[in-house]
Amino acid sequence: MSDTTALSSRGAESAGQHPLFHLPGEHHPENGTLLGFWLYLMSDCLVFACLFAIYAVVGRNFAAGPSGADLFDLRLVALNTAFLLFSSITYGFAMISMQHGRQKGVLAWLAVTGLFGLGFLSVELHEFTHLIHEGFGPQRSAFLSSFFTLVGTHGLHVTFGTVWLVTLMVQVQRLGLIPENRRRLMCLSMFWHFLDVVWIGVFTFVYLMGVLP
After folding, report:
1. ∠ CA 85-152-199 to the nearest 5 degrees?
2. Are 61 and 143 in contact, with CB atoms under 8 Å apart?
3. DSSP string of 127-157?
4. Which of 49, 59, 62, 111 has minimal CB crowding within 10 Å?
5. Are 152 and 202 in contact, with CB atoms under 8 Å apart?
């Protein structure tokens, strides 16, 4: 028996209308959003994989200019890494609060996560501004071009994630922990932890290996 129930076509035609159809049940596929978001994250993995590959190829082309050992301040980068790692922890607490139905707890932990995200972006902007002010912008060498592209792309993702987080806080405040907001929180959780994993790769591959002779 078909799930689609057709109204009487004879009655509809007599009324001068087209037959109507009713689709019972939920129209949104179960877990469809999460599956689609996983596919997006996989495509983003390919983007970062290409940027890492480019850096691996041209990251030693200094054009008689400074290398990573001359430019990178590991103490500043370690502080930035701590900001992002702690933001993942606080977002995890927000998800725990969501599972227990505590709206205020979710909002509080999301706010702390957003502050850590803003701290990360502030340190990264300070680093970029300092390098450009010293004359070591992306046009100086292939090494700096690939560095600014890789790290800057990650920074743009964190910026987008922070804006998304603030938007989601407004939605949770106004509508509560409805199923739609829970699904959105799950998607942002995957995105935020993905950025954390990518940054660990950046910290290791670009900064730590960059200060080696």
Report:
1. 25
2. yes
3. HHHHHHHTT--TTS-HHHHHHHHHHHHHHHH
4. 49
5. no
Token readout for 95 is: 């998800």
Backbone angles phi, psi at 6, to 5 degrees: -95, 135
**What's the Rg (C-alpha) of the chain?**
24
> In angstroms, rounded to a whole number, what is the distance separating the alpha carbons of residues 4 and 72?
64
Q: d(Cα 117, Cα 158) in Å, to the nearest integer?
A: 7
Residue type, 162: T
Identify the DSSP state of 209.
Answer: G
What is the pLDDT tens value at each position of the chain, 213 positions in all? 444 444 444 444 444 554 444 445 555 555 667 888 999 999 999 999 999 999 999 999 999 899 999 999 999 999 999 999 999 999 999 999 999 999 999 999 999 999 999 999 999 999 999 999 999 999 999 999 999 999 999 999 999 999 999 999 999 999 999 999 999 999 999 999 999 999 999 999 999 999 886
Residue 183, both tokens: 């699904």
